[in-house]
Structures
1.
Amino acid sequence: MHHLAILNPKRKLLDKILSGEKTIESRWYVHKIAPWGKITAGDVVYFKDAGKHVTVHATVHKVIQKKLQTPADALPFLKQFAKQIQLSEDALANLEWLHKKRYMILIFLSKPQKTQPFSINKQGYGSACAWISVPDIELLKETRKK
């Protein structure tokens, strides 16, 4: 399975993934949405900054999914993996962002690489969608007639 993760360009996470500083992609949700239940070791995640081309991919080494009964359930994971997730000091100091989250997914990455840049077509997935799971990334590649 292939996955597309769309990142906030202000965080400059693509370089951190490539350098090995960021080895865990985390997703925190109110509801069970992709990639919950769709991602396993051996899958490939393609990354792009919002509004940009896909430029990086990595292999999934391990996945931890956890239903959070309370925000406190996430604290051991935040303490253990904050550096690998590359959480900002602000995010760790003020956990208000975690208040209504009920699902945590930690995606451990290996073998990050640059990929030949390509654009995607998110039509049918929702304009605000930040994660898409597909059998083959080719299904998302935007094709333009010249």
2.
Amino acid sequence: MFTYQVILAIVLSYLLGSIPTSVWVGKWFFNLDIRTQGSGNAGATNTIRVFGIKAGLPVLLFDVFKAWLAVHLGTWFANPEYSANQEVIYRIILGGLAVLGHVYPVFAGFRGGKGVATLVGVIIALYPASFFVILICFSTLLASTRIVSVSSIISAFVFPFVAVFMFDERRMPLIILAIAVAVFVPYTHRENIKRLLNGTEKRFDFGKNRIKKQAGG
């Protein structure tokens, strides 16, 4: 069951997820650790909030891409003995390891982000049709509330309903994963939920770069 190709894919998936895009961008271009700025989260939202859209958008896109790529390692490092169901589980595990790597990155002292962008990469790879509906949901919520945490939590909650009832997903591993996403995202946003209840959660500023690029950074 565990061929050397499968073991290699497992290791690579975690290492891909562990690439701390926001941390490296902050240190290389601004001489700052993003984890000491803003919300302290090593993710795309905090990068945009602190360093601006020009720094944050590449972080977002790469964090999505690295998880998408991890899932596709299941195709490129396939085990021909796997059944169709086992193949789906294998790809889910690889995506999950990328998310784990993002949250606990070996290249950044195991202090990473919340994993939402990497989850998006997994969803694009495994539920491409559902993704576009969730993207519309997230974008609409963000435009109306300007609160990323609210948009992320509600979109995650809606996701399994979209996958199962709108797109008739019947593969049990993918149904379970969709439900797990709906639980995982609120769990990683526990502090945000506390701030929402206290009325102190910050609204997202689509605007500007607050910290300028450091010379020689």
3.
Amino acid sequence: MSNTQLIVALDVDSVAQAEVLVDQIGPDVVWYKIGKQLFTREGVAALKMLKSKEKKIFLDLKFHDIPNTVAQAVKSALSIGADMVNFHAFGGSEMIRKTVELNAQEHPDALLIAVTVLTSMDQQALAELGVAGTPAEVVKRFAGMAKSNGAHGVVCSALEIDIVKEACGKEFQLIVPGIRPAGSSVDDQKRIMTPSQAAEKGADYIVVGRPITKADDKKAAAAAVLEELK
């Protein structure tokens, strides 16, 4: 049985919509992701709703700014109940290091995670930004930098799990979006995999949104993913 945990993405417009989804999905899912769509509109209320239901929160705001600003933003995120927070590795070594130094001691159980390459990006998109290498090469480079500066793990696509685990070790946490159960729509993701494939490769967390939140029976859809992770 894998130790891979499911995070359900609450990409909706309101706390009311999010709460309905959480109640429909039921008690078996512990982790939920709050991203820019919900947080920008509803803010702390979204986290309070999840905390009232004893859920764990991945606050997916992908901070990217000067080092002190990101460090303080992550401090704010942890103070309002986030259990996992992310920031762009593109911000560089100093940004990652300062963020970890400011927050890791006060919140020893929190996961401070660097985003490597967005799952919607391919080599052409990276080249357009002047970033050399394939997505896999860039992910490996960014993951190594994140680890050496104290980050607990990275967000990467399922296709880079092997590379990052080999380079950074089994303890380094991998959060893998772009997961699509067999037979579901690919939507706007380019580098994807099924839950069981990602778990087998060693993903620590998988993020699943629409295949669960848009399903007719959301509890059954979540249960099917959890079953697949076993």
4.
Amino acid sequence: MIEIKVTTTRRTEAINITQKIMKEVKGMEGRLLHIYTPHTTCGIVINEEADPDVMKDILDGLERIAPHNYPYAHREGNADAHIKSSITGCSVTIPFEKGTMKLGAWQGIFLMEFDGPRERKVFVTLL
């Protein structure tokens, strides 16, 4: 298992971690790559990396679904982050062959920060 640290700089943001992961697993053997974050207020998603407006639209859409300023019962002030993390999920699994991830032409892997800025951990396991 490989641990990658990701430092976020804003309360909500999408950070492309594809290259960090590729660097760590290049040339390794396995059939599946599992990427997981052990936090309850961020997520891991695969989506388009070619156009940054896609991730902006996703973050904007999640904000409309679970607005930060809604009067939630959770008193910590980050209930929206928990909801957004539940929607995105905290892991993805990608086919892996001949030392490379089998992502689509436009796909990238993103850490979705919903309660930053923070330092986040991402665990990468090759099976």
